[in-house]
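haha ok so turns out i had the wrong file open the whole time. this is the CORRECT one, sorry everyone. sequence first:
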Amino acid sequence: MAGVDELAAPSERLRRQASHHRGDLYGHLMLAMADDYEAGGPVAAVYRGHERAPSGSLLSLRVLAGLFRLVLTGRAQELARFYPCLGGTADPAEAWPAVREVMAAHVPELRAALDVPPQTNEVGRSRALLVGVCEAVRRTGRRRVRLFEVGASAGLNLLVDQIRFETASWSLGPPDSPLVLRDGFEGDFQPARFDIVSRRGCDRVPVDVSSPEGRLRLRSFVWPWQVARHQSLTAALELALRAGSRLRQPVNVEPADAGAWLERVFDALPEPGDPAEVCVVWHSITRLYWEPAEQARAAAAIAAARSRRAVVEVAMEYPQSAPGAPTGWPAELTVDGDRLGTVGDHGIPVRLDRR
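then structure:
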C-alpha cells in the first residue's frame, strides 16, 4: 500500500516542506515552485516522471541543491545575490522570477539532480563524537582508538583528532588546524587524551572530497543562508586535503552497507586485540535510513566483535520511539546505549545530562 507521501502531488509535498522553511530562501522558492508545478511551468517539466517518488526522497531539496550547484559553478551567477554564503543580501522573497528563468533554461540538468540524494557531512557533529570517544576511553582505560564510522559520507568526522576544539576552560587538537570548533558544549565535560591509530568509514554512496565534484556536492546540500556552516565545511575540506598527506593512514570511506562492512572490518583486525586499543563505532543521524534487518545485522556484528576485543558504540541518533523525526528533533548522544545528553542536528549544542 502506498504511503501518504506517495499519494500526494508534488505541489502538495512542496508546500508541506516549505512549512519547515518559513521566511528563508527555500521556503519562498518551494511555495512558488508549487504554484508553478500546478500551472505546468518548468517545475512540472523537472518533476515529470517523478510524481510518485518514494516517501522521504525530499525531491524539493534535490532540485534546490541542483539549482545551488548551477550558482556555485557560475552558470547562474545572476542568482548569487540571493545566496548569503556567496555574499548575497537580496530579499529571498524576490528570488522566484529570476530562479524560474534559470530553471526553464536548465530543465535536463535539474531533472538529473533528482537522482542525487540529499547528503551532507556535518562536521559540527564532531563535538558529539569527541564526547563519545572520551567516554569510551574513560570506560575502558584504553587510549589507542580504532575509529569506525558507518554512514560516513565523505569521512570528515573521522578527522576528529585533527580538529581544534576551543572553549573557555579547555582546548584540544592541533593549534594550526584549519577547522576550529568553538564552544557548543553545555554541561560537565573535560576531554580525555587519546590517539587515533586507524580510521575507516563506509557509506552507501561515499563522497570523494579529493574531487571537485565531491566538494561541490557537499556544498550544494548545505542551506545557503547558514553562512557559519559553509565556513566550517570549507575549513573541513581544507583539513581533509591536508590530512591526506599528513596522516599515516588517510581517511578511507568504502561503498557498503553498515552490517556487512562491520562484519568485514572486524574480521580483518589482527588477533589477539591490542590491550591498549579500543574500537569505537560511530554513527550520526543515519539509523533512521536503515531497514530493521540492517540494524539487527550491525548490532550483531558489534556484539560478535565484543567477544574478542574492546568495542564501544557511540551514536548520535533520533530516539527509537520517533522514527523519521523532523529536522529540529533533538538527537540523543549515547554510548553503548547509555544516554549522555542531546545534540542539535548540526552538532551544536551538545547538552550533557546531569550525572
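The longest strand covers residues 195-203.
again sry for the mixup
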